[in-house]
Amino acid sequence: MDNHELRKRLFSIGNDQQFNDVALEIFRYQYEHNSLYRLFADSLGINAAQVSSYDRIPFLPVSFFKTHKVVTGSFTEEAVFESSGTTGTTTSRHYVADFSLYEESFTRGWKLFYGDISQYNIFALLPSYLERQNSSLVYMVDRLLWKSDLTFGGFYLHDLEKLATEIRNALAGNKKVMLLGVTYALLDLAEQYPLPLTGAVVVETGGMKGRREEITRAELHETLIKAFSVTSIHSEYGMTELLSQAWSQGGGLFTCPPWMKVLVSDTNDPLTLLPAGRTGGINVIDLANLHSCSFIATQDLGRLNDSGQFEVLGRFDSSDVRGCSLLAV
User: Fold this and answer.
1) What domains, with CATH codes, occur in the chain?
2) Do 283 and 261 form a contact (C-beta atoms < 8 A)?
3) Are 321 and 61 in contact (CB under 8 A)?
4) Which residues of the chain have a pLDDT value below 50?
5) What whole-number distance in Å separates Cα of residue 175 and Cα of residue 167?
6) Does the reported pTM lie above 0.90?
């Protein structure tokens, strides 16, 4: 398979038929060249040759990334992204064959949702991610920062007072401002240095990481809207195991870029997909994930609306999902 040509096609997807065609081609390629994924699909009785629609492609449980090296083909990785985890827990590992593919994916995705990145001053409040190595989120934001207007902004660890001061200076200079932060750190900023961010974009990336009591996304957004005097809170949905992100521009409703799609399945029968409005397990098709696995069953609960947008409603334990006996392999 010509990966260069396929890469051009996946980033040129303009309709559902094109998505289906590329998804099927990648599925067959990964079934052929990813022994773990092939074993998983075979265990479910899937006949790869008979899969004719992306909604019939099997989704590999994300927990395999904690126990196996999930790769398609043979390559020397340029990096290994690792998930965050509490002390003593096993983290996911994503072996990245090509940084440029990841960069093209998140850069194109950003442009679709926010336009010209060179017009933004980005303030990144990601302390727990900066304190460890191999974070895919830190890599993404670092690259976005280099493409942005660097008059103000950058990474901030624990100096919330400096962050608040520099955001005020950027807004006073009529700069376009994005504040992007992990949930607990944004709440710390909201409590200690509430400031009007009218006209700015505030993005939460999720994550309490044991630092605070878990609250609902609606409660979080209500608190941040009040503290920062904005009309809505944006959100980013990404995972260590993926190379693409979905973005919400308010209300907790996420939209995928054209090369990414979310489907929702019955948690008791992962092969049964649910219609819009029903709550189930979130399955992600990320066609940019060429060298790993593009079809992943997450441990997130969610539901779709009639427009194909999705909400994230919580998490469930992978042990609740049937059909995952391969985890013992």
Assistant:
1) 3-76+259-328 (2.30.38.10), 101-241 (3.40.50)
2) no
3) yes
4) 319-329
5) 9
6) yes
